[in-house]
Specification:
The protein is α/β, with parallel strands linked by helices. Helix content is 46%, strand content 17%. The protein has one domain: 3-Layer(aba) Sandwich (Deoxyhypusine Synthase). The protein is globular, with a radius of gyration of 20 Å.
C-alpha cells in the first residue's frame, strides 16, 4: 500500500507538478484527474491509436473553446464528434462577443432586452441568431453544394472563418468533425431554411461510412469524452465494432443512478463491448471548464 502524502505547494509550482501531487495525495477526484492525465499521455503517445474527442456545445460558449481549439490545432485527435451548438457558438464567436453574467440574473428582464443566458454567459441576439443567419446565408451561397456530409460542411465553414475558431483548425488539419444531430441548432436550422429554395441536403450516412471505415481499419483507439448525450454515445457506439475503446477518459457532472447515458460510467460500456475489457479508463466527476484546462496545461 502507498501512503497518502500531503500537498507541498510552493509559489511557482507548475501544473504538471501539481497534477503529480494530486496522484500522491490520494484525495478523491483529484487522484482521478491525475490518472486521467496519465491515460491521455499514453493514448496520445500511442502512434497506432485512433483518437476521438467528444464534447457538448455549452463549453464552446466559454473560454474553454480555446482549449478545444488548441487540442485540434496540435492534432491530438483524429476525429471530433459533437453537437450542432458547437457550430453555432464557434461561428458566432468568430464575429461577435459573448459576455459575463451570473446564474441568478432576472431572465424575464434579459428576454425583454433580447439577451439570452447560457448558465452565467450572456449572449445577445445580435451575437447569436442574427449573426449566424447572416453568415450562414452568405456561406451556403458561396459553397453552392447539393449534398454534403456534416464533416464536409464543417470544413467548408472552417475555411471561411478565422484561425481562432475550432472549425478552422478542423479544416486546416483535415480532422473530420461529425455532427450526428445536425438540425438541432441555429446552423442546422439555416440548413433547413436554405433547402427550401435550393436543391440541398445533408448526407448523415456519409458521416457514418467515414466512421465505420475508420474504426474497422484500426486495432487501437482512445477517446476523451466530455459530458454525455448524442456525441458521447456516437463515439462509443462506433468503437464497439473494433472490440471497444482501449483508452477512455470521461469528464462528467451527471449521476449514474438514473440510468442515463450521460451518467453511465466506462465500466457499463464494457458490458456493451464499447470499451474493451482490458482498457484503461476513468471517470473524472466535475465541471469540464475547470478540469479540461488543468488537463491540457499538464499535458503540454
Amino acid at each position: 500500500m502507498n501512503p497518502v502524502k500531503d500537498y507541498e505547494i510552493k509559489s511557482k509550482i507548475d501544473v504538471s507538478e501539481l497534477v503529480k501531487q494530486m496522484e500522491a495525495s490520494g484525495g478523491f477526484t483529484s487522484k482521478k484527474l491525475a490518472y486521467g492525465v496519465d491515460i491521455l499521455k499514453k493514448m496520445l503517445g500511442d502512434k497506432e491509436s485512433l483518437n476521438f474527442l467528444s464534447f457538448p456545445a455549452d463549453i464552446i460558449a466559454t473560454g474553454t473553446r480555446g482549449v478545444i481549439r488548441e487540442m485540434i490545432k496540435e492534432k491530438w485527435f483524429d476525429v471530433v464528434i459533437t453537437t450542432c451548438g458547437t457550430l453555432d457558438h464557434d461561428l458566432a464567436r468568430s464575429f461577435k462577443d459573448y459576455y459575463h453574467g451570473s446564474f441568478g440574473m432576472d431572465d424575464v428582464e434579459l428576454h425583454k432586452k433580447e439577451i439570452n443566458r447560457l448558465g452565467n454567459i450572456l449572449i445577445p441576439n445580435e451575437s447569436y441568431g442574427i449573426i449566424i443567419e447572416e453568415k450562414m446565408r452568405k456561406f451556403l451561397k458561396e459553397i453552392n453544394a447539393n449534398e454534403m456530409a456534416t464533416y464536409e460542411l464543417v470544413w467548408e465553414l472552417g475555411k471561411r472563418l478565422k484561425n481562432d475558431s475550432i472549425m478552422y483548425w478542423c479544416w486546416k488539419n483535415e480532422i473530420p468533425m461529425i455532427i450526428p444531430g445536425i438540425t438541432d441548432g441555429a446552423v442546422g436550422y439555416q440548413l433547413w431554411q436554405y433547402s427550401q429554395n435550393n436543391k440541398f441536403k445533408i448526407d448523415v450516412l456519409k458521416d457514418e461510412k467515414l466512421l465505420s471505415d475508420l474504426v474497422w481499419n484500426v486495432k487501437i483507439s482512445g477517446a476523451l469524452i466530455i459530458g454525455g448525450g448524442i456525441s458521447k454515445h456516437h463515439t462509443i457506439w462506433h468503437n464497439q465494432f473494433k472490440q471497444g475503446l482501449d483508452y477512455a477518459v470521461y469528464i462528467t457532472t451527471a449521476a449514474e443512478y438514473d440510468g442515463s447515458l450521460s451518467g453511465a460510467r466506462p465500466k457499463e460500456a464494457v458490458s456493451w463491448g464499447k470499451i474493451n475489457e482490458k482498457a484503461r479508463h476513468v471517470t473524472i466527476e466535475g465541471d469540464a471548464t475547470i478540469i479540461l484546462p488543468i488537463i491540457f496545461a499538464s499535458l503540454i
